[in-house]
Design a protein that fits this description.
With about 230 residues, the protein is α+β, with helices and mostly antiparallel strands. Helices cover about 25% and strands about 30% of the residues.
């Protein structure tokens, strides 16, 4: 289990210029205590979820993993982090700390290392009638169903932490995050056409009551560090 800093950049549908992104990548790759650094961009091909189409994903999603919240705090105060963030200016939308847990897929004793490059990034936004109940129910019951999807490689959940970056960039209003990972978007589309997708939707309808948004973004992931 790692602590991650998720930074979402730019309004949906906007692409960061090629000239500026590499500078941020180079600086962040050298952050102290960094375990991994993944860069997510909107999937190049169409995802075919029969239940949701949530529109364009953030133009750029960076997930930086650290051993603990204290490590994340030190890294995000590092000049390399703040300099890169300042260089991207108003395009930084949110900066959110979360605890990431890895869940095994069906037939595996333990979660696999993260290698596959396609991710379906899901976030549940506040509020819920009883947030603790919602999160507990989800964590205990939904990942095992997700792990039965055909050809799935990884299931991960994200729990937000009470932390805000010193620069004042707001944290997202998440109460929970989820990510399922496949080798290829075609494999994901096959999984979405399987009977289990309908079973997952039926389970979703049994969740404890919540009125916040939940978003689903198909994204291509590239490992920068780790």
């Amino acid at each position: 289990m790692n602590t991650v800093c998720e930074v979402a950049f730019a309004a949906p549908g906007f692409s960061l210029s090629v000239g500026r992104a590499p500078a941020a990548l180079e600086l962040w790759a050298g952050l102290p205590e960094l375990v991994s650094f993944d860069l997510y961009t909107p999937a190049a091909r169409q995802a075919e979820d029969p239940y949701v189409q949530d529109g364009p994903a953030p133009a750029w999603l960076a997930l930086l993993a650290f051993p603990a919240l204290e490590s994340l705090e030190r890294a995000t105060r590092d000049k390399r982090f703040t300099t890169a963030l300042a260089g991207l200016g108003e395009h930084a939308l949110t900066c959110t700390a979360m605890r990431r847990s890895d869940h095994p897929v069906a037939g595996a004793d333990a979660a696999a290392a993260l290698h596959a490059p396609f991710s379906y990034v899901v976030r549940y936004h506040r509020p819920a009638d009883d947030e603790m109940l919602f999160v507990r129910h989800y964590i205990e019951t939904h990942p095992p169903l997700l792990g039965r999807l055909p050809a799935i490689r990884n299931v991960m959940c994200y729990l937000p932490l009470a932390w805000k970056h010193a620069a004042g960039i707001p944290a997202a209003d998440y109460m929970l995050g989820n990510e399922v990972v496949f080798d290829h978007i075609d494999h994901f589309n096959v999984a979405m056409a399987s009977p289990l997708r309908h079973e997952l939707r039926a389970h979703f309808r049994q969740f404890p009551s919540f009125s916040g948004r939940n978003t689903h973004y198909p994204m291509d992931r590239r490992r920068i560090v780790g």
